[in-house]
Amino acid sequence: MRALSASEAAAAIEAGTLTSEKLVQACLDRIAERDGTVKAWVHLDPALALKQARAADAAKGGVLRGIPVGVKDIIDTYDMPTGHNSPIFEGKVPFGDAACVALCRTANAVILGKTVTTEFANRHPGPTTNPHDPAHTPGGSSSGSAAAVADGHVPLAFGTQTGGSVIRPAAYCGVIGYKPTFGDFSRVGIKMQCHSVDTLGLMARTLDDIALFRGAVLALPPVPVARDVAAPRIGFLRTPIWDEAEDDTKALLEKTAAQLSAAGATVLDMAFGRAFNDILDDHGAITGWESRRNYADERLRNPDKVSAELMAILTRSESISLERYVAAQRKAVAFREHVDSLFDKVDVLLCPSAPGEAPKGQEFTGDPRFNSIWTLAGTPCVTLPAGTGDMGLPLGIQLVGLRHEDDRLLGTAAWVAARL
Amino acid sequence: MRALSASEAAAAIEAGTLTSEKLVQACLDRIAERDGTVKAWVHLDPALALKQARAADAAKGGVLRGIPVGVKDIIDTYDMPTGHNSPIFEGKVPFGDAACVALCRTANAVILGKTVTTEFANRHPGPTTNPHDPAHTPGGSSSGSAAAVADGHVPLAFGTQTGGSVIRPAAYCGVIGYKPTFGDFSRVGIKMQCHSVDTLGLMARTLDDIALFRGAVLALPPVPVARDVAAPRIGFLRTPIWDEAEDDTKALLEKTAAQLSAAGATVLDMAFGRAFNDILDDHGAITGWESRRNYADERLRNPDKVSAELMAILTRSESISLERYVAAQRKAVAFREHVDSLFDKVDVLLCPSAPGEAPKGQEFTGDPRFNSIWTLAGTPCVTLPAGTGDMGLPLGIQLVGLRHEDDRLLGTAAWVAARL
Asked: Across the interface, do A293 and B97 touch by the CB < 8 Å criterion?
């Protein structure tokens, strides 16, 4: 039953054929069986989870009635520590819940536990392994959330994305990752890295679950994923870093484009205007400038507890001038308009979710650049599992929608997923 | 010596004619004398302040060498409680400093204490009185910061603005308030109300102090306020709510425009395009939609500890649909471009800082709408003291600059201030 989707489980709980307590126990059993290898969870309190489940069963109702949710460990929880994978915060319990957690509780969810993050959702990795092969990274920074959802520990989990921290690990682990339009989801109680791009995202195993979860986080009735959309117009946008994708990923994308075209979609080759070929440099200038200042407290009071990787990034960022930052912000505004304009011709953009399969080892969580472009663009994005690569690990395809048209993106993604 | 500006005091400390310890003691003495009436401070620990001052004297150097800074009580401090003027947070000490506080400490400042805020920087007032007449409000939400700077308790203080929470109280108290371009200042560790508009701002008694303080918060060498700017082109923009300003304020603005024109400025009457006459409704839709979700934890776990005013606002906001929110976000993007375009013709915009003098009583902190317009626009703004109104209380004029041209705005403001 831990293999049920959230939507299926919520329906069964509503129908009285399942209880939250049974579902949560099944998830805890799966975690007990597997987490010695996967290491997706940094904090788990089975008694607390079951207590919440019984309360959810008693309360009835709610968009996420009795459904367990995994919470990335840079997101505050009042009843569990929020450690940020940093010795500075280890064991510290925040005063309150992040808004997204409180909205889940309001929707009658069970907050199952905290999932492993890289240090402050930056690069320094945690211990999580890829559930498809423990010798490989699950990706990051939302490492534990992606692995937990993929491995059947929990149907829903929160991630956050500043570069590629939701879409990439979801693709590496073979689940669905979703980053909403910038601004839609509250970031209250989420450790801020770069305010101009940090985005709360969702992971699940089905698109219906993404829609359900999105409804809960928006505090709105979920909008069911449309199943009756017409064959979409798809812009195949290889991005300026296409050549850095691995051969299996390039082949997958080309094959997918052909397949969708054969299924009735109109597929157009598209590219950014030349002015935006170096847009990743602007993402780098913005995130570098902001993160250097946003970590001022850690740098001042606890420099010895910040990882060497993060310190090196923050030190390098010292060279980014205010003028460079401002230029990048202006470029980003123009880029968002440019990306919006691409949707005059298409319903969705298609591009890689990552350069390839999950890299070997736990040290490097992979290259986020195929995602950073869209984090800066503020567009909604979804990654769909789409087979495996040369090493037998999952590959994903990334679909990008027009800003503020998230429901439409999910409908188009369903059309695509049904034809993969 | 507590009447010294921060720039003067820093120079004296650097020259060895003053110590931080003496300056801080003078500020503490002034507070002891006056705060029974003004009630600007919610947390003050004289021993801790003096300890910091001695450390600053010993450390030497730093942009804010030994200068005391007041911190609005929605901004985290690791060594003092951060109460948000809410029983939910009363007495709670955060794990770390907000980035802006850490950046001040990095610049060798003394964090003097926490200043009174309205509840969560929203409407429910604190006890602070206007130092010019305790029967009147100091404005809000940055009530204590404005009053403390005005009354000589501290030369510098942090405020935050979601509607009019920096510029308005600064104007009511007769000090300089400054809101930077949206995005420039880190918001890490500041209680978030509405992520699309919340902006950290500064209060001081001189423009030079604003420039100094801005340098510290940007972690950059301060850019001295230019004193050699040519007579500026000024757009007199009465805003769509001009008719709601009081007569003394209207007269002040008209007189100022004439005075600056006589002094050599080119003054043009300007107005928003008609599409933006109701832009305040869009500010309301964005802040209402976001705050309702951002306070999800307080609403769920502590509804009885949230003020009736805030609960009423959050309840009213339930009627704002996602579609309305998105429309407002799109309008805001267009509005920012429109406002930017106004600067093709002028260097600065001139408008009221508030509808009039500080209202009588402590219950209503005043109307923020002359500020909310610019908070949504993301423009840098400064309010300059400009005489008194019919009741003998301070009035301000608001100068608005082009986004990302904050240094230029401060130079133009200096030109204007020299001619008031």
From this structure: no
Q: Which helix (H) or strand (E) holds B218?
A: helix B207-218
Burial A244-273, CB ≥16 within 10 A → b, else e: ebbebbbebbeebbeebeeeebebbebebe
Q: What is the ipTM of this complex?
A: 0.97
Residues 6+ apart with CB under 8 A from A334: A275, A276
Q: Whose CA is closest to B87, among B409, B303, B263, B317?
A: B303
- Say if residues A363 and A297 touch (Cβ distance below 8 Å): no
> Given B39, B72, B191, B331, which residue is catalytic?
B72
Question: Is the pLDDT assigned to residue B289 strictly greater than 80?
Answer: yes
Q: Give contacts of A289 with chain B, Cβ < 8 Å.
A: none
Cβ atoms of A146 and A177 closer than 8 Å? yes
Q: What is the pLDDT of residue B326?
A: 98
Determine the pLDDT at residue A1: 77
Tokens at residue A357, please?
């399969």
Q: How far apart are CA A188 and CA A191, in angstroms?
A: 8
The 10s digit of each residue's pLDDT in B351-378 is 999 999 999 999 999 999 999 999 999 9
pLDDT in tens, A76-115: 999 999 999 999 999 999 999 999 999 999 999 999 999 9
Contacts of A195 in chain B (CB under 8 A): 183, 186-188
Tell whether the model's pLDDT for residue B3 goes beyond 90.
no
What are the C-alpha distances in Å from B106 to residues B64, B76, B178, B329?
A: 9, 16, 21, 36
Full set of structural domains in chain A with CATH: 1-420 (3.90.1300.10)
Evaluate the omega torsion of the peptide bond into residue A141 and state whether it is cis, within 30 degrees of 0. Answer: yes
Distances (CA, A) of A229 to A34, A178, A253, A259, A409: 39, 19, 22, 17, 11
DSSP one-letter code for B243: G
Give me the total of CB pairs closer than 8 Å, taking one residue from chain A and one from chain B: 116
Q: Structure tokens of B307?
A: 């003020």
From residue A296, how far is each of A89, A230, B182, B188 by CA, in Å? 15, 50, 19, 9
**Confidence at B2, pLDDT banded by 50, 70, 90:** confident
What is the torsional sign of CA B295, B296, B298, B304?
positive
Instruction: Tell whether pTM > 0.95.
Output: yes
C-alpha distance from residue A322 to each of A135, A289, A293, B206, B215 (Å): 42, 8, 12, 23, 11
- Pair A155, A4: CB distance under 8 Å: yes
Tell me the HSE value of B159 on the side-chain side, using a 13 A CA sphere.
Answer: 39
Q: What share of chain A is helix, strand, coil (3-state, %, to 5)?
A: 45, 15, 40
Q: Point out the residue among B95, B105, B297 whose CB comes nearest to the CB of A89.
A: B95
Nearest CA to A384 out of A164, A171, A199, A69 is that of: A171
Average pLDDT over residues A48-52: 98
| pLDDT per residue as tens digits for the range A37-48 | 999 999 999 999
